[in-house]
Amino acid sequence: MNDEQLLRYSRHILLDDIGIEGQQRLNDAHALIIGAGGLGSPVALYLGTAGIGRMTICDHDTVDLTNLQRQIVHRHDRIGHPKADSARQTLQAIDPGLQITALQQRVDATLLDELVPQADVVLDCSDNFRTRHAVNAACVKHHKPLVSGAAIGFDGQVSVYDSRVAAAPCYACLFPPEADYEEVACATMGVFAPLVGIIGSVQAAEALKLVAGIGQPLAGRLMMLDARAMEWTEVKTPRNAACSVCAAR
Description:
The chain is built from 10 helices and 8 strands. By secondary structure, it is an alpha/beta fold.
């Protein structure tokens, strides 16, 4: 790190659990962020400002006026612009040294097979089961840790799925792809603006912990938040030996 970086990240470096070596691991890391919306906004902002040196941000959508109630990485003058590029502009305005690849694409198995192996940590900030299962399958296939979040209405959830840990479940262990889940969308159900900030911030914290090698990650634990009561519930999540995705790993 140069002198400017030492000053920029000095409050991290002061933490015994991180220090210069941990901060260097963050600076050398590559994070793949799927989705630049409500969850992806705080994820990208906190990973970027915390010093994750390289980020790839994927989102097929463009900024809409209705997004600005909660998607804090975007600005009013970017309505109609690609979300991934809008996020890149905001982050590089904060730190011009960040290396950010912005992809205006909907991820599929082929693209994920290209992107996931390059990343040190993957963050699923998408809003549909199809994408979540595709991301999970790629992370299991390539043995990459996945930090997954979801938020709708006043309810949110977050966990870490790490196929490198023998006893840890993957996303499909909890939510089998063959099950019939009802999709719900913010456009029809609504979402409490600060909820995505809370869940996304937890996702960012878990990703930073994984990269820096500190603390106890949420692998094997699903955290659920009822924002009306501001009450967290933790559920232990064992691996499913019969899981259709990770059983053979």
